[in-house]
Each structure stands twice: as C-alpha cells, then as structure tokens.
Automatic annotation (TrEMBL):
Enzyme class name: hydrolase
Reported cofactor(s): Zn(2+)
Domain EngC GTPase as annotated: residue spans: 112-257
Name this polypeptide is given: Small ribosomal subunit biogenesis GTPase RsgA
Gene source species: Nonomuraea africana
Length: 358
C-alpha cells in the first residue's frame, strides 16, 4: 500500500493524489507536511493539511519574484510547529498570471494548479467584448481550459441573441448561459467544470452568487450591483478556495478591474484562433492585415466573415502584451546584472579579508 492511500482523506478533496505524493516524498522525509494554500495575505496564508486547516508564514518562499510567490491553489511543503512556515512550493502545472495592477514590469499570479477557468460575463448589461477577449486570452495562457459563462440570463432582454454574440468572442470555447436565480444552465455548467475551477470576471458579474449555486450553500459573500452600469462592490476581497460537493475545488476571486496581459503570446493565439488561421492564407508571411494585397484577413472582413472590431482588439492586445513582456524582460536583465555585481563585490570583499588575515 502506498503512503498516499494510508493518509487521511482531508487533502484528497482538494486534489491530492499519487502523483503529488511522489513529488512530495523528499519533503515528507525531511519532516514537512503537505498543504494546499487556500488564501494569501500579508506574509501569511491559510492552508489545508491532512489534519485540518492552519495558518502559516510565507516569507521563506518566492520573495524575489511576485509570480513565484505563494498564491491560492499552490501545493506547499509546510514546516509544522508553534509557528508553521511554508518552506517550498511544488511545481505548478498551471498558473493564471496578469500584469501587475500598478502597470509595473512584473506579473501577478492569481491562482495556481487550475484545471478550468470560468470566465463570467453578465447578461444584465451588454458584455464588454474587449474585456471578455482579455480574460479568455488570460485563461488560455494559464494552461487551463476556459469556459465562457454568461450569467444573469433572467435579466437579459434577449439571452439567445446575447449568447450568439458572446460565442463570436470565444472561438473554440464552451459557452454556457446561466441564471443562479432560476437555475438555468447550472447542471450543464457543473458538468464541464472539472478539477480545480477558478471564477474570473468583473465585479458584479455574479461570481460569488454563481459559486454559491454550485456549492449548494451560501458560502461566498455576495452583494448588490449598481443599476446604471451593472457593477458592484468587491464583496470577495481575496481569493478563496472551497471544495465542490460533486468533486473538485472552486476558487472565487475578487472582481478584476485591471486585466493586463504579460508574456501571453500563446493565449492570444488561441483566443483569436480564427484570425491566426486566416493569416496563414495571406500572400505575405509578415502581413499586417492593413492594405497589403492578398490579405486573407481583410478579405474575410470584406465578406462579413470577420468583425473589424475583433481585428482591432487583437492588434491592441498584441501591442500591450509585447510592451509588458519587454518591460518584464528588461527588469529581469537588470536584476541579473545587480546579482552579478553583488556576487562580484562579495568575492572581492572575501578576497581582501583573506589577504588581510594572511
């Protein structure tokens, strides 16, 4: 019998399995215990272990790079005791990363080890196409599978038309129309949300309300939205992780105001797959899809097969992603130079000290 099968079942509800147990073996041999991080704030985290929840410090890991810092969904090695500490993170199989809200040159990890990203857009007001496209690109880039969830169908003037318009924003993505108030679409949604599920969307999109419907209980805090624009207060103030009754884990996130992309080339290619595919038939390999002869993308727009707005959105996100990625690369290079200078100075000081003593 493996060591995992003899463990208490507490972690299995959060996704622990044989593969993770094998990866954790060296940490267990060192006296550390496995845990999944449920929430992070100010150098501390709430984590779930085999024997129950605990509060642990996070200052020993990921201090240099915000993307590698502990985040909700991470599997961690915790040193137990009077003051538990996270000492290491297991390798992530996926991670949702956006550029920092301050628009500085680093990314921010929103959730790790995610299987399904539910991108929520409310039908109570007209969904913002550009925002949906950003979130879909973010989801694809993470390595998880995106699902576009249209919420509040009971408040939509024409849910079928809204759903048809939304489908054009997410080619290749499952689109499900739901209403937490009437129960519409919830069974269909539950059937495609597998493993660890993250809810992403603007404040007021109904993430917490939908999460409670999936959980079958009022676990997540909810709030009202403004009638004039459909936006709400951030009732979810930090990422939270809760097991789903039918299996899997749900991560609710605060409403995202800024959804900057960084190093998201593959995510953009998948989010705008139809443009990428059309571009293969352009006469010139470096076609900018502007005025070049033989441009298959412009031909599709002229034929009404592709929306001009969609191409404009693609170009905008490509420029933004390239800018953010270049800044991130430049920052990394500066840090490498600083580290090299620091190592050189330390070696110089050590050499001088040895000379002095001799």
């Amino acid at each position: 019998m493996s060591s995992f099968t003899s463990l208490p079942g507490g972690l299995s509800a959060y996704g622990w399995g044989e593969e993770l147990e094998r990866a954790f073996a060296p940490h267990r041999a060192a006296g550390l215990v496995p845990a999944r991080i449920a929430a992070v704030d100010r150098g501390q985290c709430d984590a779930v272990t085999e024997t129950g929840p605990l509060r642990a410090g996070t200052s020993l890991v990921g201090a240099a790079d915000p993307v590698s810092a502990p985040c909700t969904g991470d599997w961690a090695a915790v040193r137990p005791g009077g003051a538990p500490q996270v000492t290491a993170l297991l390798p992530r199989r996926s991670v949702i990363v956006r550029s920092s809200p301050s628009r500085r040159s680093y990314g921010q990890a929103l959730a790790a080890n995610v299987d399904t990203v539910a991108v929520l857009a409310s039908l109570a007001t007209a969904p913002n196409p550009g925002r949906v496209e950003r979130l879909i690109a973010l989801a694809w880039e993470s390595g998880a599978v995106p699902v576009l969830v249209l919420t509040k169908a009971d408040a939509a003037p024409d849910p079928a038309q809204s759903a048809a318009e939304a489908e054009r924003l997410a080619p290749g993505v499952t689109v499900i129309t739901t209403s937490a108030a009437t129960g519409e679409g919830l069974d269909a949604l539950a059937s495609v949300l597998t493993g660890t599920v993250v809810l992403l969307g603007s404040s007021g999109a109904g993430k917490s309300t939908l999460g409670n419907a999936l959980l079958g209980a009022e676990v997540l805090a909810t709030g009202a939205v403004r009638a004039q624009d459909g936006k709400g207060r951030h009732t979810t103030v930090r990422r939270e992780m809760v097991p789903l009754p039918g299996g899997g884990v749900l991560i609710d996130t605060p409403g995202l105001r800024g959804i900057g992309l960084v190093d998201a080339d593959e995510g953009l290619q998948q989010a705008f797959a139809e443009i990428e595919e059309l571009a293969l038939d352009c006469r010139f390999a470096d076609c900018s899809h502007d005025r070049e002869p033989g441009c298959a993308v412009r031909a599709a727009i002229a034929a009404g097969e592709l929306d001009e707005r969609r191409l404009a959105s693609y170009r905008k996100l490509l420029r933004e992603n390239a800018w953010a990625t270049s800044r991130s690369d430049a920052r990394a290079q500066r840090e490498d130079v600083k580290k090299a200078i620091t190592r050189s100075l330390r070696q110089t000081y050590a050499f001088r000290e040895r000379q002095r003593r001799s």
